[in-house]
Design brief:
This protein has 342 residues and is α+β, with helices and mostly antiparallel strands. Helices cover 42% and strands 21% of the residues. It has eleven helices and twelve strands. The strands form two sheets. An eight-stranded mixed beta sheet has the order 4-3-2-6-5-1-11-12. It has a four-stranded antiparallel beta sheet with strand order 7-8-9-10. Helix 2 runs antiparallel to helix 3. The radius of gyration is 21 Å and the shape is globular. The chain starts with a helix and ends with a strand. The N terminus is likely disordered. Bound molecules: aspartic acid. Aspartic acid binds next to strand 8.
Amino acid sequence: MKTISLAFAVSMTLFSGLSFANSDKPFAIAIHGGAGTIKQSSFTPEQEKAYRAKLKEAVDAGYVVLEKGGSSLKAVTTAINVLENSPYFNAGIGAVYTHNEEHEMDASIMDGNTMNAGAVAGVKHIKNPIDLARLVMDESVHVMLYGQGAEEFALTQGVPLVANETFNTQKRYEGLQRAKAKMAEAKSSADYQAAHQQLDTEYKVGTVGAVALDKQGNISAGTSTGGMTNKRYGRIGDAPVIGAGTYAENGVCAVSATGHGEYFIRYQVAGDICAKVKYQQKSIIQAADEVINQRLITAGGTGGVIAIDHRGNIATPFNTEGMYRATRKSGEPAQVMIWRDK
Ligand code: ASP
């Protein structure tokens, strides 16, 4: 009897020692809901409250996955699903309209542990594009699928197709009409870009993304978007491009971007930030700041990123007036922010 209780006591001590060690491992998550000239004055207190509540819901949903020992990949898709299902953000429901008054969505995910990645571009009938990106990564031999082919693949995976109208919102429709009116006046590509910059940002931003570090020390990143208002000709942005809108590499960093995609592709924003960490031993804060607040500003590219390293350090720089974002580190409450200081 005594032996049994001794064995029991020893195993309990070991068990609690193990669980202590596990619960001691840092984990963290950061999310964004798009960067842009988000004017404080254009929000009613009720709207601001509602946006903040949705951002908190998303970051908390990802946090719970990590707290329970789930993977950073699962935390990323869980958080992004909350934002895709909300009409406030330009991803899933609430995606911006193309010139042809449809929605074409892009998404990607990367696993820093295996360096696997999956992406979809220009999908029109997928309720949660980030989940399809994950299936491309896990269940196909490819990295990126686009349009109809991506949707055929979805059907093979049991993902139902939904009507394109599912993603309609009045706010985004008005945004398209304004964009069309402004851009109709543009005579050159420079005019066109200038007109695009002047559009009310509330009508064109809102890409969503997440980066996370799990208790196993693995980091991941994911991004999902409707792209840019009034886009034409099958335009695809940076969100599904690995190294531009999304990147993750264990021991280095994980990044999800939002902003003017054409710049993020040409400047390889997510990959460049991680290269600075990897080859120049820069901190995630410094690396992300150099790319967003120096390189991109010089180039004229607007936007921001969320980035995380293997210790759970988080950077959220942006060169616009605001970026919807939230972070949560192990044992700490969520922090939700929209503008520079609040
Ligand atoms: N990066 C996205 C794109 O260019 C848009 C955004 O983040 O607002 O498609």
